[in-house]
Structures are given as C-alpha cells and as structure tokens.
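Comment thread on ticket #2218

A.B. wrote:
> Attaching the input chain for the structure job we discussed in standup.
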Amino acid sequence: MSGHSKWSQIKRQKGVADIKRGNQFTKMAREIMVAAKEGGPSPEANFRLRLAIDRARGVNMPKDSIQRAIERATGGGEGTQLESVVYEGYGPGGVSLMVEATTDNRNRTAPEIRAAFGRHGGKLAESGSVQWLFEQKGVIEIDADGEAAEEVSLVAIDAGAEDVQTDEGLVTVYTAPKDFERVKRGIEAAGIKTASAELSMRPTSTVRVGQDAAQTLLRLVEALEDLDDVHKVHANFDIPEDVLQTASV
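C.D. wrote:
> Ran it. Output below, let me know if you need it in another format.
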C-alpha cells in the first residue's frame, strides 16, 4: 500500500494534522474510551488501550485528557455508549475502502458516511463486500532515507518484522499483530524514532489510480477522515508519487 503510506507522509509534511488537532483529540478520546470499555482501564493489561494512549501521545494529547477519557469509559456516562462499527465501500477508480467508526448513534453515523461517499464519486457497500481484500497487520512508519533507511530495515527485520518497504524517505514496517509490540520496542530500543505505529488493515492487492480519479479519491478519503465519528480509513489505492505531490484536498 505504498501510495496510501506515502500520502500519510505527505500530509504530515504539510502539517494537516496540526490544523485539525482539535478534531484529532476528539477522535483519540473516543478510541481510548472504546478500548478502555472493552478491555479495562489498565494500560498494562489492555493492549488496545496501551496502543491508543501511545497514538494519543503521538499527537500531543494532554495527559489529563487521556485520563478523563479512560474514566468516562469505565465510570459510566457517554463513554459506555460508544461502539466500534466498520463500513465498507467503493471509491473512484475502483478503489475499495474500509471505514472504522466509533459512534454512540449508528443512525447518525451511517448517513454521514453514505453522504461522503456520494459527494465524491463513491458508494457505500454491503458488509463483507471489500473486507476480504484486507488483512490486519502492525504498521510502523519511520522517516528515513539512504543509509539510515537500510539501517532501520535491518533493525526491524532483526526485531521480527514480516516485511519492510522503503520509498524515498519513508520506511514502512509490517508485522503480524501478535508481534507488533515486540518489533516496535526493538526499533525504539535502537534509538530509532517512529513517525506512526498502529494496527491497521493492509490490502492484499492494490489498484493503480491515475490523475483523473486520484484527486476525487483523495477528497473522498479526506472527507471521511474529517467526520467526527470516523476513526480510520483504509483503502487499496496506489497513486504515483508525482500525482500525490500535486494533489490538493
């Protein structure tokens, strides 16, 4: 999924995450609440919560906000009503998308997601339509180039990575879900800073998207990611780097 990984890197470089930080904090709070609700309030005993907290820290979410989210989920109130839902659909160019949402009201979330697909040349599909095209993997991204990328790759392989891909300044490490924490710790123990680390859905095949469809497709992805209830968007597009660099959303 080199195209989508590269798009994540480009967004970081553009500072889009900073612009939308308030929205990001809301999403991270919901992720933490669902993880705490399902697995308990202790990060040491709850891997999903531990990962959610790490991601929240990665976007500089305040410690007090993280703790409040855990308490809301385990002490009653709004957090106890949240649930995780996955929506599936198709975008421009025949691209398949999986949309992970965290919601307290499916009757609100589903129409919002359907409308976003419709406005940007896509359509919502039946459950199970595209999920078979993805497999869960640990995904760790490191900004590195040249000899540094080679070093990162060797460290990741030694730590137990399944696959490592390098692409002009970006190293993407893939692991089995059960090995994710061990590989991440091994990379960090070597003094290597990660740009992002999460359990994600990796496509088993990709769809090459040209100039005509790319702009609309990326606007669809951004529109879905902007929805308050949407937690993650997974897609199997592969867009040439020159097209990604000129895309504006």
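A.B. wrote:
> Thanks. Noting for the ticket: The chain has a mean pLDDT of 87.
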